Amino acid sequence: xxxxxxxxxxxxxxxxxxxxxxxxxxxxxxxxxxxxxxxxxxxxxxxxxxxxxxxxxxxxxxxxxxxxxxxxxxxxxxxxxxxxxxxxxxxxxxxxxxxxxxxxxxxxxxxxxxxxxxxxxxxxxxxxxxxxxxxxxxxxxxxxxxxxxxxxxxxxxxxxxxxxxxxxxxxxxxxxxxxxxxxxxxxxxxxxxxxxxxxxxxxxxxxxxxxxxxxxxxxxxxxxxxxxxxxxxxxxxxxxxxxxxxxxxxxxxxxxxxxxxxxxxxxxxxxxxxxxxxxxxxxxxxxxxxxxxxxxxxxxxxxxxxxx
Length: 308
What we know:
Blueprint: H1 3-20, E1 29-34, E2 39-41, E3 44-57, H2 59-67, E4 71-74, E5 79-85, E6 93-114, E7 118-128, E8 131-136, E9 146-156, E10 161-168, E11 173-187, E12 191-194, E13 203-217, H3 222-231, H4 235-242, E14 253-265, H5 269-287, H6 292-300
């Protein structure tokens, strides 16, 4: 998925909206930090981005999947943890399922609020790589086999929407950066004020922990157009999925994630110049030959006071 293009579009829409809602998101610089890259902003360098998200399936969603004998599988870059029921009367099925996806980028608003280098940062979005696949076989709950891949999540905190790449069988095709779920509540701060960094210390470790719960479809029509169609579900299983969008349920589940990064002070040009001059002096001293006799002369030779 073209996350870079998605953030450009999102940032443009955000800036337009901020003009009317300046009290919500104060003026600042909007920028994306990618894994393995550095971001220089306001005299600071952001780097070493890491972290992961955990998509936990709700009990209602698992019951709907179990009813249609739908299987779960992790896609590359992600990992899947499940537990299965062993109750013979209830039949085999998933009791729990969690997909872990590594973080790929961090999109935020940065603003200097205090000296030196105290910043106010607003988390606006995060992208993740990998995802999961749902697969169904011909059974009484389906009209045949099917497959649905959901991957590369992009969380947009401004619109409270989770986007994903969708790829489905039975004519669904590929949907890039599709607005899939809204989230009802968030635990954790999406806006934080970080203390200033002084030049003697020069670095700071930052960690964000957020949990988004109550995932409901942005478009109710996705039940039929994406899930039921791709998995070839019958009408009964389609209704089971539609029930997940009832506000009295937990929806599809929750997405919890942690983002970590290192922030370092960038020396001013004057500091670099002073450091460069010092290194040049050291290099010159190393190149200059050492003469022991000259040192002896310097110690023994003193101005003569004779004749005064």
